[in-house]
Here is the input.
Amino acid sequence: MACAFRVSRSRVWSARAAFVSVFLASAGMALGAPIFSYSPDTGTVEYGDSDFSKELPSDIPDDQVAANGLTFNLYYQDWRDTRAAFGFDNAAATGPNAQNRLKDVLTYVANTINETGTIDVLVDESFYNTVSGSAAASAGTWYTSDPGFQMGSTLERLRTGAKPFPGYEEIHVSVNFAINWNLSTNAPSFSQADFMTILLHEMTHGLGFVSLCASTGQSAVSANVYTVMDQRVRRRTGMFPLFAGSPPIFQGVISDLTSQSVAWGGTEAKSLYGQNIAPGLYAPTTWRQGSSMSHWDTGKIIGGAVMESSVSVGVMRRTWKPVDLGGLIDIGYTSIEPPAAEGEGEGEVEGEVEGEAEGEVEGEVEGEVEGEVEGEVEGEVEGEVEGEVEGEVEGEVEGEVEGEPEGEGEEEPGGCQSGKASFEWDGIRYNLGDLLLSGLSLLALAAFKRNGLGPRK
Ligand SMILES: [Zn+2]
Here is the structure.
């Protein structure tokens, strides 16, 4: 169903085309061994020099997570900077819960990947970006400039037991605290982005679920430097490898990268996906730096997956889906104990909506929206609200809907990019349209109203 399902709610991570290459800043710089990090979701490239600049604080970690033989050292830049309390700071309202949820996620990661060793995690300064479509978070790991299919510094440290780049973290992550986060262990509300869901996504990038492919097919960081994930990328037709050779080069044509027909060539992901077809990789018709190629084919993975390029507010994905696990196994996390391939889709949508709608919705809506929203909503809300709606829908939505719905729901080029505004008020209109078709969504509308998300003028 295309990607209409996310029209009614915001995606909570997305790519900014902030493609920053600071390498080559000065030809005269005395360079040690150049290294690069790449952060999907923002598409940000960082340049490092393992001989000179040190990114990781040199003192003891601020905190640790130790589980199942694996230790994550945590360094919080929010604790170390001079800004007012914000983000992960202890004194910030968000701090303690944000820290605890990060630790919850890392505990899950440790218990699932079954690796022994130590990983340094740098929690970069939190940011606050309200611009529609801005990323909710980003994360990445480090690579050398040596041509080849690299695993990234996280997996390399686990494999060798040695820190690949002293002075650098293996995983860095930063979070946008402008997002309406659910920082609790409870399910998110209809309007909240689930912190653990997004952090698990980001940590998966930090583990090396990353493509370094740029829009041209060249490496985004350094000539002929790709990842073990890129090594799995296939043109679906003929399952032709798009990156191959020694040193690896892009073997395809640029249009492959926006063909919506790119597949994963690893055997475990296909097997665990359980659909008798290789899972697709995200290759929307408009290249999206940071999102394209570094995620599953968003919106088209049956049952959904943690490593889709966006997730809707209100959705909770705190554990990897089988296809995610298969992808991790294929790129080298071979100690994962794969689940039996099974139906997906569990645990997607926890109902936070119940009980909020009583006495809210009645009467005023007819005639306003009909004919305007139809055709964009079908099949969207059903299954999320159903079962919680019965008998709750009377009351008042007066005067909120007039004249609004037209023109909504068009996809931006590349699809599936609905901005923040659309989950607040625009989302109501979609749900309302659905209501008129199915009678199911009044509850959602009323829930929005109760949550204070009134119409935006
Ligand atoms: Zn991502």
Remarks:
- Helices lie at 77-80, 95-113, 153-160, 195-207, 267-273, 322-331, 421-438, 442-450.
- The pocket of zinc ion is lined by residues 13, 40-41, 201, 205, 295, 309 (CB under 6 Å).
